[in-house]
Every structure is written in C-alpha cells, then in structure tokens.
From TrEMBL:
<dbReference type="InterPro" id="IPR011990">
    <property type="entry name" value="TPR-like_helical_dom_sf"/>
</dbReference>
<feature type="repeat" description="PPR">
    <location>
        <begin position="56"/>
        <end position="91"/>
    </location>
</feature>
<dbReference type="Pfam" id="PF13041">
    <property type="entry name" value="PPR_2"/>
</dbReference>
<comment type="similarity">
    <text>Belongs to the PPR family. P subfamily.</text>
</comment>
<feature type="repeat" description="PPR">
    <location>
        <begin position="126"/>
        <end position="160"/>
    </location>
</feature>
<keyword id="KW-0677">Repeat</keyword>
<protein>
    <recommendedName>
        <fullName>Pentatricopeptide repeat-containing protein</fullName>
    </recommendedName>
</protein>
<dbReference type="InterPro" id="IPR002885">
    <property type="entry name" value="PPR_rpt"/>
</dbReference>
<dbReference type="InterPro" id="IPR051222">
    <property type="entry name" value="PPR/CCM1_RNA-binding"/>
</dbReference>
Amino acid sequence: MKIENCLVSEDVLLSICRGYVRVHRPFHSLRVFHKTKDFDCDPTHKEHERIGFPPTVASLNVLIKALCRNEKTVDVGVKIFLEMPKRGCDPDCYTYGTLISGFFRFGRIDEAKLFEEMVEKHCSLTVVTYNSMIHGLCEAKNVGEAMRYLEEMKSKDIEPNVFTYSF
C-alpha cells in the first residue's frame, strides 16, 4: 500500500491490527500499530509522548486487545491500562471488557474482578461484558457466581443472548 502511494487511514491500520489479533498474531499487530506514522496517520504511542499529546482510546484498545491474547504479554496490556489515565486517556467499557476476557483466558480470576471497578466508574455494562464474566466464571468452575451475574444482568434489564446461555 505504501509503495503504491495509497492513502491509508488510521481506521484501516487499526482494522489490520484487529485482524492480526483475531488470528493470534499480537506481535504482528504491534508492528503495524507502530508503523501508523509511516502512513501519515495518527502518531504512535511513542510519538504521542514525544510531542506531548495523548493517544486515542481506540488505538490503545487495539493494542491492549493484542497483548491480552498472549499469556506472556497480558501484563504489558495491564501496564498500558494503568498508564492510560495518567496520559489523559481514560479506559472505556471496551478496555475493561478486553482485560476481563484476557484475565479469564489465562485463569487469572482474581484480576478479572475489574468488573466491580467498571461499575464504580459508571461504565455502561453490556451483554458482552456480562458474557465475559459468566463464561470466565463457568470455565473456572465457579457456576454459583456465574449464576449471580446472570441474575444481576437480568435485574438490570440487560437481555441475555444466545452466547450467554451457550456456556
């Protein structure tokens, strides 16, 4: 694309990053993420820091999702998550959901309790967030707590979907 002088938007590059994440290639995703400047898109995280502007929530969410797909890099994703507010970029509901899924994926049940922090920060809870919690708790053989989240979900008028019941 660069050789052919195609204009590439940040959205296209972030889509490529997400594609690499979906096929379990987090390091490829990171490589593309760090090349956004080469395509005259928004600067990378390092460049943002150098010029004094915070990165976007969307770009950091892609990066965190890539890092949470690999057990060896989850802690780097957590570090970025913890740094976000210090850099003027507050995590959103998608950020929390990504971390929750990553923690459950690698059996880090206690850390997945970020769900409670989401509630405290008034993040809107969605069926996807509840599904992450319910699925993770079922995988951890904690069916009682999973049922508690299912009931809580219903009490908040969040409609369970086919994925909710497929665990």
